[in-house]
Design goal:
The protein is an all-alpha fold. The chain has one domain. The two termini are about 20 Å apart.
Length: about 60
C-alpha cells in the first residue's frame, strides 16, 4: 500500500495487520457507496452495471 515510505522495516505481522485493517475499511467504503447509490437513476444506455462482468462481477 505504501511500500518504502517508512525508514524502518515492517514485520510480516505488521503488514498482515495493516492489510486486515485496510480490507475492513475498503469493504465498508464499497458497501456504503453501494447503499448510497441504489437510489441513483442511471441513463438507459449506461453500461456501468456490466463493467466488471468479464472479471466475474463484484460481490461483497
Amino acid at each position: 500500500l505504501a511500500a518504502g515510505i517508512s525508514k524502518t522495516l515492517l514485520s510480516h505481522a505488521e503488514v498482515v495487520a495493516a492489510m486486515d485493517n485496510s480490507i475492513i475499511r475498503m469493504n465498508e467504503l464499497i458497501a456504503n457507496f453501494i447503499a448510497q447509490s441504489e437510489n441513483i437513476e442511471l441513463p438507459q444506455d449506461c453500461t456501468c452495471h456490466s463493467a466488471l462482468k468479464e472479471f466475474g462481477g463484484f460481490k461483497l
